[in-house]
Model the fold of this input.
Amino acid sequence: MKSAHAISTNGRWRGGLRRAVRCAAHALRLRAWRRIGMGALLCLAAALASAQDAEDAEDEEELQPAKAPVELMDREPFDQLTLTAANGNVVVDILPLETPPVNLQSTDRLRVRLVKYPDQEYEVTWENVASYRSYHQLVFDEAQRLVREKKYSAAFRNFDYLLKNTQRTPSLNTAVLEYLLENADLLLSEGKIDHALVVLEELSQRDRHFRSDEVGRKLSQVADLLINQEVERGDYAAARQIMASLDSRYGADRIATLTSWRQRFTQEAEDLKRQAEAKMAADETLREAEQLSRRMVAIWPDLPGAQALRGEVVRRYPMVIVGVSESAGYQDAASIESWPARRTGRLTQRTLLEFAGAGPEGGKYVCAYGEYVQSDDRRRLTLELNPPAEPAGPAALDGYAVARRVTQMADPRSDLYQPAWAALAERVCVRDVWRVDIDLRRPHVLPEAMLQIQLTTTASDPSVMEPGDGPFLRAPGNGPDRHFVAHPACKFAYDNHPREIVERHFASSDEALGALRRGDIDIVDFLLPDEATRLAGDKTVRVVPYALPTIHLLVPNHRTVFTSNQTFRRALLYGINRQAILETEILGNQKVPGYQVISGPFPVGTRDNDPLAYAYDQRVAARSYNPRLASILNTLARRELTEKADKRGESVPPETRIVLGFPDSQLARITCQAISQYLSVIGITCELRELPPDADAATLDELDLVYRQVAMWEPVVDARRLLAPRGVAEVGNEYVGMALRRLDAAKNWREVRERLHDLHRIVDEQVAIIPLWQTVNYLVHSRRVDGVGQRPLTLYQDVEQWQVAPPDGQGSSE
Amino acid sequence: MKAQSSACVTVSGGPAFWRLRRMAALVAVLGCAWAACARACPADEADSWEYLPYRIRVWLAGGPSAALTPAWQDRIRDALENLSPLYGGATWRLEAEAAPAGIGSSIAAAIEDLTVEQVQSALHGAPAREKSNVQAQDPAGARAPDKLMLLGIREEEGRFLVACRELDWHTRTLGPTVRFEAWQPALVSRVAADAVGASFQALVRVESSRGKKATVRVRAGGLVSDAECPSAVGSGDVLRPVIRRNDRRGEPKPDGIQVLDWTYLLVREAQEYLLDCDVYSAMRNPLVGRSSVTVERMALKVRAGGNRTTLQLVDRDQPARPLEGYEMFAKKPIPADSSDANPSLRLGLTDWRGRIDVDASDLPLRLIYVKNGAHLVARIPVVPGYQPLEVVPLASDDKRLEAEAFVRGMESTVMDLVARRAILAARIHRRIAEGNLAAARQLLEELKGFQTKEDLEMMLASRQAALAAPDKRQQQRIDQLLTGTRSLLNKYLNPEELVALERAISGGAPAPATQPAASPEAPEREPPSPGGDGPDAS
Done:
């Protein structure tokens, strides 16, 4: 229940919990079965099915509503007579009288119908009646009682009914105002400040003069608390909005605190302005000036001269702050398993060949240092490198450097050794300094895909741009932000290119978007699809989809007790309701094209005949959620493991507990929490562990499962990078290895597709990885940043083309 | 001779002079003892194998270098003869001479590439050596030593590289090359002697062999006084067997020398010069029979010079094609009757060249298991460090692995399918028992949507065509795998179950249970087979 609560507090758990909890008891029952001699799978399956059916029946009974006493407000209106003491003080509910009894004599008779027996009319002499209360009176009396008992929420219904259905008598009005004031008091004492403000506003609207001093004091107190709350959160824009709103409605005269806050903000902004102006004097402190002026504008943009100063700072030191959901622990422009590493890798590195997008036959690649061509027989790759434009200019990449690098990749003694490349490359030859011929042992459809390699740089002087250097340099910074400053030797397309890019981590996209709206940041790197849809109509920002989807996987550790067992991995696959998690937790019950549960380690594409989907075998269906089968497989896996352990004289842990690691991103957190819930249903305790951005191998080795988001954009080479024993998933499975070797040996695209489909099938059969789904990803940026592109592959793909406009400038349309 | 040796040592001079002088005195004493022993044990006493010392001839060849003058080489040869008792004691009779002109340069420059035939022809063509003390006692030994040590010395960038390789004349077998280096010229003689000692491989004769056991007799074993002696063979040592087939003259027949590949003898117990050995081989019974005049079974002591051997697996039919992705495990060669645990240690997978490194462990011999998928392809005994690279030709098992992958996948599919069917069948029975026939029918429709036995059989048949192996044995294994899968389908996917469920729904009564009852105490049962012979078969 604890983790279920955690999910609900995220606001993203939209279903399935009840079912999960219902099945948990059933899973507990299963544990008792583990002792039985259950060699017969069928016996277990039948028993499980019967038990599950019994569970279902019990649940149906549970669904019947319990009978609770009916509240006054839920009953049909009725009047009430209380008889005299001589008649036992009996209280009788009667159907409402058309005319209320007024000035009756003691001998007058009253004709009534009891609520219990509405068809029967009774007569009662007025002398026997102690009191008569109409339904409205009953409701009013109950409201008063509830207020006395401080049950304000319940009292609201009564007052609401009375206000809508009766004449507003002064006593009712007073009662309502008293109720509102008392309610506001309570809410304030409970810390529900915004609720208290709403109640006080309601009170003021009803009667502006009702205890005006007291109401004014409370309003001022509420305003103070609310503004302070926003200031503590750093959301000055929200604070200003509250101030403006209260000022327009009540005026600073009535809410004294507004003046003091205004003075405080102005003072803070003025201080910052002075500091920023001082920092502006020197080029070295422009970064500080940027940060100070940004903060100044955020606090009090109306400060005289603030916008001009901010504009000047931005002109002199354009800085872009990017909100990210996952911080980059390292930079690798060709990483497939780390989105932040790939993103920031583009800032600091240029690889020999770069992936530029999906083409009809594999990816399209560009070489930042020249051109390349593959021979017709696919056995030679020729690189024509650009000589330096001017003799005194920056050093150009020459053929010898490339030859050295690709030779190192084939040398088992080198740290840069890549077995797949060593098996492919036969000979490297440099001609005329700038031309490199790489002969291959066998034809390969995309040898260039294997040359997305970093070029080792030797420059000790950061002002010199060596081949392999990216347009930005990592820079030290205070706090958790990651700073990248423009390389002094890099040629950017525009003068107002970013001088510095700062990446700031946000725990949730809501927080990041809030910061974007406030102007604290300029870009949010990664959005959930429902947020992207919501923001699409916002004119102040631009939502941009990334060009290619990513796939999401759980990577099992093939060395730990449980996840090394294939039956157990199948249990995990059947036990996670991937479709439900995707639809409810991630998509928010929307239909978004491109989001799809997958059956293998390859992208399924985002449209019909998407060339990116060349590796995906549509015949391999994604396994559907089947908790019963998952429970059986879990039990069988334990049996297999116990047998194996017994042979070795070892033992299997009594509890099936696994550790699931995930990166520090909202999407991963939501997904893994949901997965943990589903696994608990089938009797698997899943401990969640958030991974640091630079998690090392030892940390990963302690985990049973790791959540990964993979940019599998070139399956013909990325398959090995993911699935090989030294790959991301470190799959040592012999059948997967065989399929990879067959893939390596493919000579043409027909063979490549066939063998990738075989690989897909084998990975599915062996559950080498646990595929989750494919997602299409979005970024959103402020319009003051221009040049991000229509559909970039990664955020900084075109960073050399970026322009940063001053705060009041309008970004040109792309 | 002793004077020369002393002079040589003196040249090196320095503070070690007195220590070396004492050593020279020791050499003289040992030399006398050796000569006395030699007189006591005449060389032509062929029937006393264990008292027959090795006749060793060293061929010294110097590379092109101003430092390696003929005179210096003479001094090295003299030093070798003088130092030999320090190494071999009474078991060695060593003489050193300049390598014949026809082979000298090869010894100095390319000792690894030498062949037995080259050495043999050089030996036959070499002029008889002038009288020496060894020759005086054993004139026949001038042309046919027991061991011919090929010793090459060359100078490279100021250091002296010494390489030595043994040719065991009886087995016509070249041993691995031993390499040492010396920076000081004065130490070259000593380093050369070390190289000769390190390259020496003791010889044993296989007296008997039965199954995985063999008994061997050590050459000159009776003369060994020290376990450190290169001629000594003791418990824990590893031997490499060689079979020599002789003609009528007692000479090896053409191609009569057979070094038994992937076969080693591990000495378990030594009783003086008779040793009990375990035979470890990749082949069956490689050493069956006794040694005789025409077929001699010998073995050479294996002395690993390094700590690692790289194994390279290649396709037996296409040796240029490496076998990649084969999994290797290592075990210790413990005796069969030992109760010690002997877990296998995973070494890894062969790389794209078919290679994997095997490092030395606490025992000199390691048993390497080669697996491909679930199939054990070979069991190979290896002495890590004995050879830097050993090529292992094996029949490619890739097609069988492909079949195995398919079969394993199919098994998982069948297992899941059977479980899902059983779950649904049980639910249908329950609905029928409750009288909820509509729900039962709905579940039956769901059940009908599952893959059927026919679907899977079709998949199996279509795959079978693509799994044709060129090798007959491999094809048999593939067929066996596929047959197993077929029987799995027949056993667990009974189409009659659906019919029975339909009947049960139509009849509105619970169908006879085709699955075992759910009970924690239920014994293990298997589902009935369709064509079965049990009462539940219907």
Summary: The CA atoms of residues 453 and 495 of chain B lie 7 Å apart. Residues 1-18, 32-46, 130-142, 513-538 of chain B have pLDDT under 50 and may be disordered. The interface with chain A takes residues 324-325, 327, 343, 348-349, 351-353, 372-373, 398, 401-402, 404-405, 408-409, 412-413, 415-416, 418-420, 422-427, 430, 515-527 of chain B (CB under 8 Å). Chain B is about 35% helix and 25% strand.
